[in-house]
TrEMBL record:
It comes from Paralcaligenes ureilyticus. This is Carbohydrate ABC transporter substrate-binding protein (CUT1 family). Belongs to the bacterial solute-binding protein 1 family. It comes from the Bacteria. SUPFAM superfamilies: Periplasmic binding protein-like II.
Amino acid sequence: MTKLTRRDFLVSTAAAAAATTLSGSAFAAEAGTKLNYTPEKGATLRVLRWKRFVQGDEDLWMANTKKFTEQTGIPVRIDNEGWEDVRPKAAVAARVGSGPDIIIGWFDDPEQYPEKLVDVSDLGTYLDKKYGGWYDVCKKYGMKDGKWIAIPLGVVGNALVYRQSMIKAAGFDTVPKDLAGFLKLCQALKAKNTPAGFAFGHAVGDGNNFAHWLLWSHGGMLVNKKGHVVVESPETVAALEYARELYKTFIPGTLAWQDPSNNKAFLDSQISLTANGISVYYAAKKSADPKMQAIALDIEHAHLPVGSTGKHTELMQITQMMLFKYSKYPKAAKAFMQFMMEADQYNPWMQAAIGYVSQPLKAYEANPIWTSDPKATVFRDSAAIMIDNGHAGPLGTASAAVMADYVVVDMFAAAASGSKTPKEAAKQAAERAKRYYKA
């Protein structure tokens, strides 16, 4: 992992000196960002992105977009869609050949229709050289056959979010780092009527992140390196059995949870422990309600426990900018993508959202947001420790389709709820996966 000092950060972004408050409402005047592309005459752009969970993210995104328009004269329309709606809308756009110029999607969505996307290798290479290099996992997601098919915007970090006072009341000083200890903690929290809650529903981020961590932490995997389906294994059964015991400690209703669900349950003090981005903490910290302020002071974050593999096995939501070939203004679109990734815009954006989206480029590790508030630090290393959703096989059409079909999530939901035995759930998952992974 690249180690840059705060001084390195300040020097590299001196031109940006964007004097950003955490609310993202104040900026210093800038001379503008030098763009590598000459936009087409009369260009206009439409960008579709996911709805914010952190207000500072949206505020700065729109402010940066306005700056781009002021500098280039190019009008940009921003459409915000629910997290679950972005993927199907992108798929429709790819199929019919019409829609937003740029769509900011999830995971390996670009692998579903690479032939419909503009080669952005020039931009990917430029950013790589200027900002300390891409993390390996970001290269794997953004590239195909040696070419960049999308530009990773960042990683919505995922970590354990917990109430320190409730953890201590249950008899623990901190969250155990092993699976057995973690289960004991959840059992103790339930006994204290301050249960945990993790999504087993079709939540793009929370459901996928949690289910894949459960599988991988036990040494299980959907496919092997050759892309052969191997999910029917003792390791998978062990993971499903563990999930069944863990699920008994959860608040009711997690089988239907989508991405906003655990945020609401946590801030309503219905649960004391979940896995999420920094959005829960952000909402509590920014609230004017004294009760929320008290919750913010009590919130802590930690990585998920390490299992039998002896290393971090966490899935997190990478989000990528895809430029579609049907765009009439690809040069203008590339200019917009470059503009948003440059330090003048990216650093203030990351600060305004207190690290909700963490960096895909190593130079941004030095952003002061990661040390100004220790509660944010755990999210700094998201791209450095995360595993891609194709693990252990290749990313491609199959991995993207399996993710979109929630095969792994449904397997855990079935076993945890008791609607299927662990072996039955694994068998069903294998059958579903083989529809996409064809030997």
